[in-house]
Amino acid sequence: MDNQSTMPLDWDLGGLSEGLRCYSHQEFFEAHEHWEAVWLRFADPEKTFLQALIQIAASFHHLQRGNPVGAASLLNAALRKLERYPAFYGGVAVEELRQGVHAWVEVFRQGAASPLPPFPRIR
To answer: Which of 45, 62, 102, 103 could form a disulfide with 71 if both were Cys (CB 3.0 to 4.6 A apart)?
Structure first.
């Protein structure tokens, strides 16, 4: 398992790719499931990074189910994890993602915004 920390994040195949496809179609529960199925194979720092993405997807699943408190809690946890990563990591534009998550955190902090920001992009 020690060599797992050097595993690259491959967004073109398998669970990461399927999760990304689901996330981009706002199928947040399915994205969470695909990513959760693969994140255990990784070691840090990739493992924590994937956990942040899983929390983002789970957050928006909570929001879709009418649980804004759970959504806000998970987004805050994900944002804390993402703060330790550079602007671009593992094939993902992390700074853009952080900004998108932060916009939603502000919506939850201040109350519903009109219009709501777009869902944070993972690319």
So the answer is: 62
